[in-house]
Amino acid sequence: MRQLLVATNNAGKLREFERLLSGLPAEVVSPERIGVRLEVPEPYHTYAENAAAKADAFCRASGLLVLADDSGLEAAALDWGPGVRTGRFGGPQVTDRVAALLELLDGAADRRARMVCWLAIGVPGDSDPAIELFSGSMEGSVTRAPRGNGGFGYDPVFELPSGQTNAELPEAEKDRLSHRGMAVAAAAPRLRQLLAA
Q1: Catalytic residue among 70, 79, 106, 126
Q2: What is the pTM for the complete model shown?
Q3: Would you call 70 a catalytic residue per the annotation?
Q4: pLDDT tens across 136-157, in order?
């Protein structure tokens, strides 16, 4: 069975990818598991560029088929930010980005938001890795307080039209509805082709 490297050091994201990719004929591995230690800068202005940069760097470092993502929360009241800066929202001094987001949105009437994910598949080759891109998104709103014990990151404050937050959903339902789940569903047929080659 071929290895598929998921280019993340985020434990919550890795667990989610392991579930989402469980139906593929691949051994899903993390950078830590194969001994690759790599921090890839994310200086770009789009999710696609950041995801592609990670896929390229991890593909070169490992020689494996790679899946990398860049994802974020976009809130209408913040001019659809923080977007690609979601992981660094508020700067390095901020230890609780969820609390910082809620504080910034305190009093905002417009709570509309979306979660966006871009995936990049890095395919090793004789020269530069080939990069293929896929995306997914989900619409919702930002709650006024966290709810639920599941998920990670902004899941407790992202409410779906059903009235549940991502953190209140059963894992299987979240995986089906989430921005990352939709992106993986879009990428899965191509991953199957690559893994069978």
Answers
A1: 70
A2: 0.93
A3: yes
A4: 999 999 999 999 999 899 999 9
